[in-house]
Amino acid sequence: MPRAAQNQPPAFLPEAANPLTRLVALRRIEVLTQAMVLILSVAWLQIPLEVVPMATIIALLAAINLFTQWRLDRGEPVSEREVFAHLLIDVGALGALLYFAGGSANPFVSLFLLPPTLAAAMLPARQAWAMAGITLAAYTFLIFWKLPLPPPQGDLAQFDVLLARATGGATEHAIHSSGFALHVLGMWLNFVISVGVVAFFLTRMAAALKDRERELAAAREAVLRDEQILSLGTLAAGAAHQLGTPLATMAVVIRELELNHGGNAELKEDLLLLREQVDRCKQTISQILASAGQNRDGSPPSMALDAYLHHLLDDWQVIRPHALLDVTLEGEQPAPLIAADRTLEQAILNLLDNAADANAASAEALRFAASWDSESCRVEIFDRGPGLKAEARQRLGEAFFTTKATGRERTGGLGIGLFLSNATLERFGGQVELFNRNDPQGGTCTRVTLPLARLKA
User: Fold this and answer.
1) How far apart are CA 302 and CA 337, in angstroms?
2) In this predicted model, which residue has the larger pLDDT, 200 or 154?
3) Are 37 and 189 in contact (CB under 8 A)?
4) Residue 1 pLDDT > 50, yes or no?
5) 204 and 69 in one domain?
6) Measuring CA to CA, which residue among 245, 271, 246 is closest to residue 257?
7) Distance from chain centroid for Cα 23
8) Is residue 235 part of a domain?
9) Which residue range(s) make up the domain with 132?
10) What stretches of 103-179 show up as alpha helix (H) in DSSP?
11) Which of 289, 287, 318 is nearest to 300 (CA)?
């Protein structure tokens, strides 16, 4: 064994999967059951047991459980050794109670199976085997050293004779008064307790395992999504670098055309539009390279939320000059100050582009409605597109899945706009929802819910 492993500190268990919490719950059942069995044995079955020491053991176990609950409520870490020590306490209490009640002849002796089972489920293998050895030693001790269980009295003695006759051993059991009925009743009650404890514990374990599997599946999906975003970011940075020269050439050519054909008013208007689009592309590429780390000027500037939305919509109108847009902004004034980087703006622009593409066949304007308070902002984009089909609703947000058709006038989409928007908004604690509008004319609503805690300047 490596030297470093010989002096390792105690392993602490994660708070979410703390087995001591379950052990405390099981011990409550144990204490209540032991107290009820002792009371029934003495008061109803009239078995002359050593009540004082047995009651003292049960009370001591209850006090230890209360102290353990108080210790858990303080939130201190729990080690594997501590859990093992608590199982030892349970074994000791059970062994002491059985010593005063017949030892290995008591039907409840099979409860010694529970501590090794719990240790095997909650602790490393070496501690589980140690617990198995300890319970075996306790069982063996009770074979030779114990106080004998008194014979049944009163009605229980008569029931013992009847039960012995029914099983074919009337003479032997009736003569020796061996307490056969008491043993059968004890075995039945022991089975009821064991089944209840095992079912309680294993169902909790199964639920914990399912929760862990769901968390692992979500983590795997997050890692896969981050890998896709990283690959897309790498490709975008490379494409931005390569597009710089062609755009610069286009800007020069457009400028020469403007100088040579300045007298043509119609052509001049088209060239102005082309120049604005080229400038917009160059600005977008510069922002991509800046986001990639080539131009770090510090944190983004702060801006009022309503001014930020107006600026965002103005930029989008430059990109989509022919798109009709109806804007409604509502919220408390003065609007909260936010400092958002370029990625958030691009996420909302992607959603606006998707809605505008869906709304292209409609004469109705695209509707943009935003409302906010001091804690959150909600943006809704309403279009009059064909709506979402069942398959689209299930696959929305997947990378490279698109609902845009390909035809003469429509070139389709890459299927990454909504994927990147959703990933960006989740990074800020928000979410995107798409659903069909409850309107006879049809259409889709894109809803963005964004908490402002991470954006406030």
Assistant:
1) 6
2) 200
3) yes
4) no
5) yes
6) 271
7) 23
8) no
9) 10-219
10) 114-122, 125-144, 155-166, 170-176
11) 287
Encoded tokens for 346 = 């691009």
Using the CB atoms, write b or e for 384-418: b if 16+ within 10 Å: bbebbeeeeeeebeebebbbeeeeeeeeebeebbb
Return all residues near 402 (Cβ < 8 A) that are at least 6 apart: 412, 413, 414, 415
Return the structure tokens found at 56. Answer: 């003292």
The pairing of strands 431-436 and 376-383 is unpaired
pLDDT tens column, 79-124: 889 999 999 999 999 999 999 988 887 878 888 888 888 888 888 8
User: Is 60 part of a structural domain of the chain?
Assistant: yes
Structure tokens at 420: 């990147």
- Do residues 308 and 428 both lie within one domain? yes
Question: In terms of domains, do 18 and 136 share one?
Answer: yes
> 204 and 321: one domain?
no
Question: How long, in residues, is the chain?
Answer: 457
* Joined tokens for residue 233: 């970011």
443 and 341 in one domain?
Answer: yes
Q: Of 219, 235, 258, which residue constitutes the final position of a domain? A: 219
Kindly report the CATH number assigned to the domain that includes residue 350: 3.30.565.10
Domain membership of residue 256 (yes or no) is no
Domain count, the chain: 2
Helix extents (H) in 153-295: 155-166, 170-176, 180-260, 265-289
Q: Report strand pairing: 303-304 vs 337-338.
A: antiparallel
Q: How far apart are CA 15 and CA 120, in angstroms?
A: 19
Contacts of 65 (CB under 8 A, 6+ apart): 24, 27, 28, 31
Q: How far apart are CA 201 and CA 30, in angstroms?
A: 13
Q: Exposure string (b/e) for 216-251, b if CB count within 10 Å is 16 or more?
A: eeeeeeeeebeebbeebeeebbeebeeeeeebeebb
Higher per-residue pLDDT: 406 or 365: 365
Q: Does 400 map to a domain? A: yes
Residue holding tokens 């009163």? 154
Integer Cα distance of 382 and 364 in angstroms = 10
Same domain as 309, residue 208: no
Cβ-contact 325, 317 below 8 angstroms: yes
Angle at 374 between CA 372 and CA 375, to 5 degrees: 85
Task: Output the six-digit token pair for 100.
Answer: 């005063």
**Amino acid of residue 302:** S
Tens digit of pLDDT for each residue in 178-229?
A: 455 565 566 667 656 666 666 666 666 767 777 888 888 877 877 777 676 6
63: confidence class by pLDDT, cuts 50, 70, 90 = very high
